[in-house]
Design goal:
Elements (H helix, E strand, L loop, with lengths): L7 H16 L9 H8 L3 H17 L1 H11 L2 H25 L9 H11 L5 H12 L2 H15 L1 H16 L2 H22 L4 H7 L4 H10 L10 H9 L2 H31 L4 H28 L3 H21 L4 H29 L4 H13 L1 H16 L3 H4 L2 H44 L1
Helix pairs in contact: 1-7, 1-8, 1-10, 2-3, 3-6, 3-14, 3-18, 3-19, 4-5, 4-7, 4-13, 4-18, 5-6, 5-7, 5-10, 7-8, 7-18, 8-15, 8-17, 9-15, 11-12, 13-18, 14-15, 14-17, 14-18, 14-19, 14-21, 15-16, 15-17, 16-17, 16-21
């Protein structure tokens, strides 16, 4: 009799904890950007690249590492990403402890960017964990399971955006980063203990054949199985146009979430002259709201008819309303409800996208999650420099005008969601017609 480690609940808890500590790197420079800006005399565009840099590695590495899930189950790629993030944080802590602020000059800017790239590797744990959780749970429960995984994990940037300003005041930058590194080490150790692969991958690791492993895992409740190796998973999912529709939607919603979590501390302090602590609290409000409401979005996606598509459209409409408010928000009192609308719409749509992913590409979930999570999260790298460029080009007014990018992204994403819904409706209708044709033929033959 085969012995198995873990169960769906333990797999979900382990992946969520690991993702939480890895995803915190989204807020790596949000609250500390002003200090680096003054020390290195950075322009608004350079600040935009600085706060976005962790998102670059966190986005691009999602593609190969999530496809690795289809061959290993998730544990190895997860630990690899967290290990790289530990190296980046340790390097950044060393630089800050020895050189900041007096000896951190403009010449150190490339070094800080490189360490930010390494620190952001943990962000890519999202697509690894999403694939790992998806293999653990049956299709009917994936919406809620993935929403819990992403919703709780996504709380990390908000929590850190709230805590870092206080830590900077009472501990200083070096000790703040030291505490961050310690938490990352603890979270990695916890994932090493609790993170487990689904039954199919455990059987394959023990040398059980593919078909036998599938049969055994299916008898225990597992429904999703990989269709092939890493390259095949990426190719198979990449050939599906639905994957790219979901990439666009995720670029808008999740990429936008990462971008604004990093950008908002600068926005609040520079545009409205708030203190770093107040800016951190408002950034935390946005981030925590977006993450929490993602759970509700997952429940809606599971329970509504055509829940994924309809939930996505609803979230995008709310998000676009928030962007319209932010473009015209010249007063602090108007910007706060605008950010709340943006966060609410992003959270709802984020959950819907990953409800749709296993439905769109059931034979290559890891590859699909890689494309969607990787290229979608790239919005977290692209959008902050674009908003920084608006400030450089238009001056202070650019802080508000920069939000116009979200209006265009929402319109494009709603178009993609409509195509997904229309395609699914036609596919179901044609399937019903094909199923009815044999019955009609038998009825005609009997009459003859």
């Amino acid at each position: 009799m085969q012995e198995f480690k873990g169960n769906p609940q333990r797999g979900l808890i382990g992946a969520t904890a690991g993702f939480f500590v890895g995803f915190a790197a989204v807020a790596l420079f949000g609250s500390t950007a002003s200090g680096f800006r003054e020390a290195m005399s950075l322009s608004p565009l350079q600040v935009g690249f600085l706060i976005a840099m962790p998102s670059l590695s966190g986005a691009l590495l999602r593609i190969p590492f999530s496809a690795w899930v289809d061959t290993s189950g998730g544990r190895k790629p997860f630990l690899t990403l967290l290990g790289l993030s530990i190296c980046g944080m340790a390097g950044l802590l060393t630089v800050v402890a020895l050189l900041y602020p007096s000896q951190v000059s403009a010449g150190m800017y490339p070094v800080i960017l490189l360490l930010a790239l390494l620190s952001g590797c943990g962000i890519a744990a999202f697509s690894v964990g999403a694939g790992q959780v998806a293999y653990w749970y049956p299709k009917a429960g994936q919406g809620l399971a993935l929403a819990l995984f992403a919703g709780i994990g996504n709380l990390a940037p908000g929590v850190f955006s709230l805590l870092i300003p206080f830590a900077l005041v009472y501990l200083g930058l070096a000790w703040s980063y030291a505490c961050w590194l310690a938490l990352l080490l603890v979270g990695t150790a916890f994932y090493w203990y609790a993170g487990t692969n689904a039954w199919y991958f455990q059987l394959r690791q023990k040398g059980v054949g593919r078909e036998e492993a599938q049969a055994a895992a299916r008898s225990m409740g597992q429904e999703l199985f990989p269709g092939g190796g890493m390259k095949q998973s990426l190719v198979q999912s990449g050939r599906n146009w639905q994957t790219w529709a979901l990439v666009l939607m995720y670029f808008t919603t999740f990429g936008g979430f990462i971008a604004l979590t990093a950008w908002f501390p600068t926005y609040w302090t520079q545009f409205f002259s708030l203190t770093p602590i107040h800016a951190g609290m408002l950034t935390a409000l946005f981030s925590l709201l977006t993450s929490s409401i993602r759970i509700a979005g997952g429940v809606m996606s599971d329970r509504l008819r055509e829940g994924g598509e309809n939930t996505a459209v609803l979230g995008l409409l709310i998000m676009m309303a928030g962007a319209l408010v932010m473009v015209n928000a010249n007063h602090y009192e108007l910007a706060i409800p605008g950010s709340v609308l943006l966060g609410s719409g992003m959270g709802i749509s984020n959950a819907a996208v990953f409800k749709l992913a296993p439905q769109a590409v059931p034979q290559a979930v890891g590859g699909a999650v890689g494309w969607i999570g990787g290229l979608g999260a790239l919005g977290g790298f692209v959008i902050p420099p674009a908003m920084g460029f608006a400030v450089s080009d238009l001056g202070e007014r650019g802080y508000a005008i920069g939000f116009i990018v979200f209006i265009y992204l929402c319109l494009a994403s709603m178009t993609a969601a409509w195509f997904l819904k229309y395609f699914d409706a036609n596919s179901e209708r044609h399937q019903e017609e094909r199923e009815c044709e044999p019955a009609k033929g038998r009825q005609s033959g009997g009459a003859a």
